[in-house]
């Protein structure tokens, strides 16, 4: 990991940075307020209300009630000739996770079993901060769509925002010409941003498999078909997909994350349930994984005399960074931060993101915002009870979102 440096440039040297410094206490307060009151996917009523309140305070035209009821989109026209100007969309996600918080922060979640374990409180607060910067900007060469979406954590809120017209101009403003999003990232140092062309995050599909057989007393296995043995053969056979069907230079994942069968040591159960996920970085490999998975499950189960009932759950597409949109991001970031703070990710991550859905409609680019404080401690991972968004990353996030709306 590169040496971390706190983002602490001289704020008076740049009017935009001076404005970011001025509003930072409000951005931090919003972040802490959202952290105290987390809401899981499609229940983000309070969070949506905070967003609407802030946009109304800035007199930014907006529409609410999107994507199942909590999504919000705001519109800031260019200061000259909006009809001829490029439209830049900026996206933040709002939902939390069903995890019980263990950070001990004074602003820790007040809702037992729910917390902002992925930093969406920071994402929302930073986009609201950028909205405040942009609303006060004397010149806006581009139109700006501010997209606040629910349900990134498994609910495909981004897909629903697109279907509701958030970036098409059908609902508000003009069609987006490009869209940008960010995610706080624990292993990138504070003060730096990171991205790459092409795939940045994986496609994420899931499955629930039920093996049904004839059960029996454990002492008489010849009178049954053991679903645990069938499951073991299926798990073993699934390993051949990545090892023998996927091109060795490509990345893919087939993981069985849970197996449940039986309740007693002397009973061969009648069912065995298996859950898991498949990850891929191209549409071709995504289709290959699904085909091979279904073929192996069906064939192995049948060969051992079992019935396999598969519930295939398509997830998010690959988060694919458009080359031109990403080149624009790099140009703006390097000009503002210097080359050493704009990092290239050598490899994609096999995590998933529903920002991917926006990229199916317009050129899209996603980047990681550094959260690691630079001490000797290991990064605190996302989706864990001890994760907290690093407030030191807030000013750079606000600055980058603002610059992407104002510069070329």
Note the topology.
Layout: H1 15-36, H2 45-57, E1 61-66, E2 71-76, E3 87-93, H3 120-136, E4 143-149, H4 157-163, E5 178-189, E6 193-195, E7 198-201, E8 203-212, E9 216-217, H5 227-245, E10 252-260, E11 267-268, E12 271-280, H6 283-303, E13 307-316, E14 319-321, H7 323-337, E15 342-344, E16 364-372, H8 394-406
Parallel strand pairs: 3-4, 3-5, 5-16, 6-15
Antiparallel strand pairs: 1-2, 2-4, 6-16, 7-14, 8-12, 8-13, 9-11, 10-12
Helix pairs in contact: 1-3, 1-8, 3-8, 5-6
General description of the model:
The chain is α/β, with parallel strands linked by helices. It has 2 domains: 11-202 and 318-406, Zn peptidases (Aminopeptidase); 203-316, Alpha-Beta Plaits. Helices cover 31% and strands 25% of the residues. The strands form 4 sheets. An 8-stranded mixed beta sheet has the order 1-2-4-3-5-16-6-15, with helices on both faces. Strands 10-12-8-13 form a 4-stranded antiparallel beta sheet, covered by helices on one side. Strand 1 and strand 2 form a beta hairpin. The radius of gyration is 24 Å and the shape is elongated. Mean pLDDT is 96; it is low at 1-6.
